[in-house]
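To assess whether the prediction recovers the assembly geometry, we first specified each molecular entity separately, as shown.
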Amino acid sequence: MSRNRDNDISFYLMGIGLFIFYKSFKQIKLQRRIQDTSTSKIASAALGESVEIHARVLSAPSQLITSPLTGQKCVAFLWRLEKYTGGKNKHWALQYRFFSTPYIYVTDESEALAALDLSSCEFQENLYGRTVNFSDSSFELPAEVLKLLTDHGMIGGEKSFLFSSKYRLVEKVIMPDDSFYILGTAGLTPSSEKPLNASSGLKIGKRNMNLKARLLAAFERRKVDPDMIQKYDKNGNMKMDELEAEAMYRDLERSLLKKYELSTLTDSYLKQCKFIFMKAKNGGLFSTDEVCVSTKTQKELASSLGFSSLLGFFGGPAMFVLGLWMLMAKINN
Amino acid sequence: MGVTLAILIFGMFMVVGLIFFIINLYNSLLVVKENVNKAWANIDVILKQRYDEIPQLIKICEQYVQFEQGMVQKIMNAREKMIQGRTVKEKADGSAAVTAALGGMVAIGESNPELKANANFMQIQTRLSELEESLADRRELYNDSVNILNTRIQQIPDVLFAGMLGMERRQMFEASAAEKGLPDLNIKFKR
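The predicted structure of the complete assembly is given in tokenized form:
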């Protein structure tokens, strides 16, 4: 038992060592890119790869929303819903990523606007936020958040007090006038602020490909719910007809985060945008396709990346060798 | 596992790292070089847009004002010089000449009430003014990129690869004295 655990530790060390070593390459490359790119002004920046700007987050006071967990008046909040996977390989696995709005808007000294696709962003530092642990058999979450998650089939399902699942919800907030260093690919601004699903302000990250399936599951449950049948039965035949079911599905989607829906003013921001920062295509093994966003200045970010890449460059191999040494020692014994 | 083997494995990592570092250095120098080319191409786009707008401005102005003989020709010559320039200096000189000549034409327009009230004139004037601003911004970006390149190719170890890639110092796009100063408004015209 103990021998197995030691082997596990040595494999972990070797794996983490390799990962850190690989990550240090990515950091070196990003650091170089940051140092080699000149800062543009939004008004005159040309579309394409490696566009760098210094900008602040723009929001009209009426656009601010209250984040559910941190209770901050913010421009947008980002959620990561993670599920604890037990067994041998225990870890927090990402289930869903949520964005209260698909885009945020930034401006600089040229007073022009640019949009930032939140699902394409890689924040270099931790934004202000809060993490809440909960399980689907207890109710540690604020009631409205829990209701939102369960209503839409994202947690729960087959509830059991004996075998409940552990979750954690990480909320990060973007405040008005937050100052960001942004480096990424600038593309044409889309014609409308259209999230992937429904007309709510919810943007579903790329990893949430199975959300549709979850929504469908919630839909199927509701379709046989007598209360729902009664609510949507327009022709009084006590059945859920196709059109009635469609209306219910639409409502189900729309109700998601409805209270955080954007008003039309944000659309007018989109129309004024010179470009949108979006994910790059096929950046390569050591490249970062995401838009690099940092609260630091260009110089600070480059030097912190330089320092951490140096640590990883030597620390990673050292960890690997230590893991290998432990493994060999166990085998020899 | 012996200490020798541990050092050997660690050394292998370092060799891999060193190879990556050299490849990255080489590639990043290419990126820096391309950044300068890209920044230059972006300036060219603005110059071309300005080139296209000038005839329209002249056409509108001529409906209201009969310019002094040679003035329009002067603008058109400067315009041609700007677009046909090959080197940074030729382009910069051409651009400066256009800016100076246009300054005169816009001043005439603004002193003519009928022309000033013309919506098309106002629109083109605004457009040219925006292009001037974009040009100034992109010139700044180009000069920044040139500065990065000029610095990199002199640093160690980049200097070793810069020679291999045939990279040389690039010239800055400097604003001319005419662009830095106020345009000459003292242009005669006939009514």
